[in-house]
Amino acid sequence: MTSTADDRTPVHPSLSEAGRLLCAGSYLDAAYRDRVIEELYVHEERFVAPSYGFDAARVLAHALQARRAEVAWASAVLAVWGLGLLLAQPLLLFLLLPAGFLSGAGRIARRRERTGRGSRFLELLLRGCGYALLLGVGLGVLQGALEGATHVGGSDDSLMLYEHILRGIEREPFALLFGLPQLGHAIAGAYAWTALIVFALLTLVVGLQRGHFARVISTSLSRARYADPNADPASGRRFARTRERILRTQHSRLVVYNVDDPFCGAGAAYRPWHLSVELRPAADGVEPEPLDNERIVARIRPRLEALRVPSPHGSPEAERAVLDRLRELVVDECVFLPASGLPAGHEPDLSDRAFDAHRAGAVEEGGERRRHFLRVRVGGWDEDLVITVFVRVHTQGGMLMLEVAPHVLLPVRPQFQEADDVARRHLRNNPFAKAVWALRHAPRSLSKALSTLSSGGRGPWQIATEGHGGALPAGPAVSVRELAAQEDASLFQLMDLDRYLKTIQDRIVGGVTAALHEAGWHTEEFAQRAVTVAEGGVYIQSVSHSAFSIGGSGHNNRTSHHTDRGERQ
Question: Which of 377, 375, 380 is nearest to 494 (CA)?
Fold first, then answer.
């Protein structure tokens, strides 16, 4: 990370608040956790997307730990269900009926919300049948428990009763709809104490699982504990190798990219623009000097770095107290290198010496694949709103071409931002409220446990069978930070975004204009057209499935998400 010129340096990416919330998100959202592990841990052939304002290695460490913990709890839940199946097989098999009815009703409701099609009458019918069967089971358990039976398992009288009901249903098949609730009542009465004991164990396990995750978020991921990167929980040889790869690449000035999504990691494109003008001598008759890309970049960079200096406030103490995030603005240069074409097992040199060599060649060549950019970054709202502007200048055939590609990482999802509050409320809640929560979530714990065990085994299976270790190197497919970003931001955040971008773009235009003027070239046309385009002109035509947009400065067309990023929900 490049620091600023004064004493106001940005927070280190490994300690940022945005990074802490991403780590907490791996405990709250199983789908997000699985995507993190798949991208960073399973696909070892892929280079890591640049990590602007966070440390991807720490997010992976907590994602792996969260998966291990959830698999352990899912195994405990499955063991309790297995105990119930062993002791009360008829009752659990009967419960598959109401579960199927309610699952079908939920599927119809979701389909109607998604497509507008789906019978509401059929949904209500299935729900009514499911709840009727559950009501019969509940009354049977209650009656069996109140009758004072102290044994675990079915009593002889109850077993004879539901055998009689089954024989009646066999004689009159149409009596099935009316006999099923009665059958459920009889079976539940036979296994009343078994059901109560198993359900109590299940509720206890579900409640302890939620308490465990709440304690992790409130302790290991508290702001105080997160300040120590060495306290991260994950370990193992493969993780150590993956962590070293991530740390080596995620903040490098040499960016190995995927051609289909070159700015992966920087967020959504925000009104990119470019401008081409012909270099014409100034009207004063003086022979202009040759102008190369290096000279123009050299004139832009000091103007951007000057944005860190606060305006006079009457005293040095008052100036030091200014909290404007522009004081933490980071300006550096980067070179984009394509991942395609690299041989298997190739580890590119990402050292400073290699960067200097690539920069020296790329700054003037104007190539298609290897590209040099001046990179300007502002991390606002504790790195929760990250604005990155990529600037590329090229002179060719008497023309000056300026490309400006602003990108925005929108704030982390509200679900992740509320992690501390959710954990605190649960830990400080009364035992009755915790018990009610566990009772509500215990019935659906079986499907969730099976899903957790299935997803937990998918990663090791992919590692063992898909051969990613021997695949050709590839660029990043997705950024774990972009997966956790909101679709929008607050008005305050959007106001800051506009202010940062307009300020940076004005300095870029001013730097290019100064370079043209000092070299004796005409500047008026460039300045006029640059202001028009930067304010939302129509020089960039729309391109299908691209990040470019035309016209207007409203926020309705400010971003364009890559297809894969849209799958984060």
Answer: 380
Per-residue pLDDT tens over the stretch 230-249? 878 877 888 999 999 999 99
pLDDT of residue 177: 59
Q: What pLDDT, in 10s, does the model give residues 324-378?
A: 888 999 999 999 999 988 887 778 889 999 999 999 999 988 888 999 999 999 9
Residue 420 tokens, joined: 């501390």
- Pairwise CA distance, residues 51 & 13, whole Å: 8
Q: What is the rounded distance in angstroms from the CA atom of residue 471 to the CA atom of residue 342?
A: 11
What's this model's pTM, rounded to 2 decimal places?
0.83
Q: How far apart are CA 182 and CA 191, in angstroms?
A: 14
How many angstroms separate the CA atoms of 200 and 194, rounded?
A: 10
Residues with Cβ within 8 Å of 445's Cβ and at least 6 positions away in sequence, in order, are 77, 81, 202, 205, 206
Measure the CA–CA gap between 39 and 18, rounded to whole angstroms. 19
Torsion of CA 312, 313, 316, 322, to 10 degrees: -100
Q: Determine the Cα–Cα distance for residues 136 and 150; give it in Å rounded to an integer.
A: 21
- At residue 559, the pLDDT reads 44
DSSP letters for 408-444: EEPPBPHHHHTHHHHHHHHHHS-HHHHHHHHHHHSTT
CA dihedral 30, 32, 35, 39 (to 10 degrees): -130
Angle (nearest 5°) at CA 55 between 326 and 479: 90
